[in-house]
From TrEMBL, chains A, B, C, D:
The lineage of its organism: Bacteria, Pseudomonadati, Bacteroidota, Sphingobacteriia, Sphingobacteriales. NCBIfam families: ssb. PROSITE patterns: SSB. InterPro entries: NA-bd_OB-fold, Primosome_PriB/ssb, ssDNA-bd. Plays an important role in DNA replication, recombination and repair. Binds to ssDNA and to an array of partner proteins to recruit them to their sites of action during DNA metabolism. Homotetramer. This is Single-stranded DNA-binding protein. Keywords: DNA damage, DNA recombination, DNA repair, DNA replication, DNA-binding. The keyword DNA-binding applies.
Length: 146, 146, 146, 146
DNA sequence: TTTT
DNA sequence: TTTT
């Protein structure tokens, strides 16, 4: 019945997204994301990094495949899913992944350009933003007389 | 550019949703939601309630109109929007609302029945859940061979 | 560096919290939490449950140990942490847990009573709320002349 | 009773934080934050900006006063609070503010330097991160034998 | 293993 | 105006 399963991450990609195309045509993308926490303990600075396995599907995966790269800073919203698989010895193993429902590139626009050539500059992320907007949308209420 | 504007509330409706139908046919629903915080201050228990103005549009509003009522406990996810209007004296005023993107009825199912007659019992919220599921969905990836 | 690692769950405890006391005196509590999602797929209702491993430490664990039980509906906020351990065959394994930073019992107060005897009734959760308030607090700004 | 009131924002400061020191010695900081959403409507790109009133108190305000500036990209977590005040004509008015409980500077470290002189470079934000860590912490469980 |  |  009632349930909420929500994850919010801001971090950097540990590698370029790994892209696969399933038989049905759907795109799936996987990458790791590092979230780092800084705190002081016993007067000393500690930096602690947590690595997350992120999965994106379909349209979101298509956008990610085009615009996300190793090192980019992103905001990700999704849900937790633990799935099992059999390892090489035939033992059941579990992985917990974040199934992304939404993402947002952070940082400077120039950081987000796939290419940064004169004449082409900033096109990349502009399009990315437009596409991401499609996923973020569902807010087209703004045309209402209110 | 990059932006995140997210609100997460769990609270009780202060009144039944007020339903309007716009000329284009879209449904809009408004209600207030109370979130209460308890803490101890100077050794005394304090209960502090915050009131939020919630708006829902279209399909989400239709579901809300059917199943939400004064007193219900609900989880709401949405975004902040401050809009201006002119008061009776013609002065510009501002209100901040939560434009809901998603909601979830909490508590016992029996709490969520509009009617609770023999034969009709539990139909109400069961349908609510099904409908709400439509809005929560976008998770139909589960049919993929993975 | 910059990082956000946040999890928000609303679900039911799958079992009573398992309580341990570490040598230093700190309490640790573990339990599983089910979050259930309902959606319709190909016209049929589907109910999908995800199980989460939740850990609580110290003061939060003490409150949890007193007031949480199998079946309770609870809101939990925390962060993801994946840790490794060696299984019985000496192989490295990984588990992802939600390290709770905050929680909130939902549902009716009567649902939350440990005991419900005349004379003792409601004491349980009333104290729970007071204690939880201590963890939720950090909002003592309210004494300021503003 | 049970309640959750949570806001998560990622956006840019519209102005430098305005700092006040209350009689008791507590620091209060106010600033506006812009969150921008991009979407396509009727095939045209739309950029919509929402402005939020953010308040920070005490230690968090001290850190903000030192390190936040107009234009910075920041992640903020807090709660909604609507308070009333009397305008110049003696009429009751309401403002909704985000009372921040936590924040995180995003973007490149170099973006976060208050000063960027040779020899002093990067000191600013490094210290900011250390201090912010103090507020983010409460995760000192890591010293436990587990 | 929860809940509806 | 909710809820406990």
């Amino acid at each position: 019945m009632s349930g909420v399963n929500k994850v919010i991450l801001v971090g950097h990609l540990g590698k370029d997204p790994e892209v696969r195309h399933l038989e049905g045509g759907a795109t799936v993308v996987n990458f790791t994301l590092a979230t780092t926490e800084n705190y002081t303990k016993d007067g000393r600075k500690v930096e602690q990094t947590e690595w997350h396995n992120v999965v994106m599907w379909r349209g979101l995966a298509d956008v990610a495949a085009k615009f996300l790269q190793k090192g980019k800073l992103v905001y990700i919203e999704g849900k937790l899913r633990t799935r099992s698989y059999d390892d090489r010895e035939g033992n059941k193993r579990y992985v917990t992944e974040i199934v992304a429902e939404n993402f947002n590139m952070l940082g400077r626009r120039s950081d987000n350009d796939t290419v940064n050539q004169p004449g082409a500059a900033n096109q990349g992320s502009a399009k990315a933003e437009e596409h991401i907007a499609d996923f973020n949308s569902g807010n087209a209420e703004d045309d209402l007389p209110f």
